[in-house]
Amino acid sequence: MLKLIKKLNVTGIIPGEESFTAKEEELGRKRVSFHGRIFRSMVKAKTPLIAAVIILVVILMAAFAPFFAPNEPNSVDIRNRILPPAFIEGGISEYPLGTDTMGRCVLSRLIYGARVSIVVGIAAVFVAGILGTVLGIIAGYFGGIVDDIIMRLADIQLAFPFILLTISVLAVIQATRDVHQIDVNLIQRLLPLILTLGIAQWVVYARLARGEALSMREKEFVDAARALGDNHFSIMFRNILPNSIAPLIVIASFNVGSSIIAESSLSFLGLGVPPSIPTWGGMLAESRELLITGNLWLSTLPGLCIVFTVLSINIIGDWLRDFLDPRLRT
Question: Average of pLDDT values for 291-314?
Fold first, then answer.
């Protein structure tokens, strides 16, 4: 019967009715446009597509580090210490990017170091985003004394320098556990650093979510939800939050890069990550004394990894800001 109706509509036998086939084609075009809009936008801008490829390569290398790494990252070879990369005179193919002061493979340590940067960057933003967004929406929706308490806590945190705050929180967390345990996985070892960066960055999400909640709590769709009997939780997280998520996503994309830089800075200072875990910041710290001897690759390579990864993430953040802004859509 449905096929017969479609046929009658296509042939125009049923006047005044739009054909099912035309509707299906229109929906198909919309569906393709919805799924392909991201890719077309990246291709049109070109630079975000290149940045996305770089980020994808870093994520794949981090996820499959044992497959891509030519050697164990902590394997020591004293006989081949401070070797240059294989494409420079004096290098060997066993160590494509050379070795450090302890004879460890630089390429393997770079690949395993990407794991730390990606995990810490994404997890810290997740913690900060969840905490800040929830507190911000609660403050903006209820207002009054609830708003005052949450915003005064944010003001107090902003009064502390970021590095001093992260070092203090990290010291408190690490005092309750032994981060040098061998029988724990990577996430457990990075948990103090993730919590530290997450707690230190929640304010920006709280302020943004509060502003969005303040502007939406008197909107018609919120009044309609109240009239239908929805409770406060449902209104905040089923009505206000979905309509506030776009700017929060943009802020989160930028904060991933800043979290990677913060992790690298703390690792450079010898904080946050145990020495047994290879990190880009730790590699910079280990090689800084060799700069005067001309062994530039030991510090240049991890520095370039940080620069290109953070730059690519920031480019994606710029693209997301434009892509999610309805005023800039064509």
Answer: 89
